Amino acid sequence: MTNPTRFCPLSDMSIDPASVTLRDLAIGDAGWLIQRHAELYAADQNFDISFEALVAEILAEYIRSSDPMRERAWIAMCGETRLGSVFCTRGAEPKLARLRMLLLEPEARGLGLGKRLLEECIGFARTAGYDQMMLWTHESHREACALYEKRGFVKTGVKPSHSFGVDLVEVTYELDL
User: Fold this and answer.
1) Does 133 reside within a domain?
2) What is the rounded CA–CA span in Å between residue 87 and residue 85?
């Protein structure tokens, strides 16, 4: 049985997982990503405006200096509606990739799109010559953490912190490619 289509109130259309396309970052996507990260994290986790600044900084750096041979962004689309994103960026070391900005609109969750974005990112990292991929997240992102662990990412760091106006547990994951 295939996944049922889901209504997308953002665009008054159903989301058919088979019709979702992935494309590169385009005009307007950075503004959307900053806005949606800020809105969703404020609503779901009570993050303050400093999180919006972090997302803006990550995107500005990517737009200014990304190397298309070593870095890539994907925006998931259903027609003209943005549903999610993921980025593969350079890490601190030459053979280390970073998974960043995995985001799904609430209406797009549970359709297998997170797994699809994750697989695209990992596949690109391998093709680009990286040996390892790492990511940083928060323990409160249970569904995302479960997805990473199911894919083979290993938790390599856990640290309590106070960030974005709330108490958090930061988590680092790594995957050998």
Assistant:
1) yes
2) 7
| pLDDT tens per residue across span 81-131 | 999 999 999 999 999 999 999 999 999 988 899 999 999 999 999 999 999
2 lies in some domain: no
Q: Is residue 106 situated within a structural domain?
A: yes
In whole angstroms, how far apart are CA 78 and each of 3, 6, 23, 24, 105?
15, 11, 11, 14, 12
Q: Which domain holds residue 155?
A: 20-176
How many alpha carbons lie under 13 Å from residue 33 in its C-beta half-sphere? 28
If one counts the domains in the chain, the total is 1
- Kindly report the CATH number assigned to the domain that includes residue 88: 3.40.630.30
Place of tokens 């997240």: 137
pLDDT digits (tens, 9 = 90+) for 67-77: 999 999 999 99
7 vs 104, higher pLDDT = 104
- Burial of residue 156 (CB within 10 Å: 0-12, 13-18, 19+) is exposed
Q: HSE on the CB side for 69, CA within 13 Å? A: 2
Given a contact cutoff of 8 angstroms between Cβ atoms, the answer to whether 78 and 19 are in contact is yes
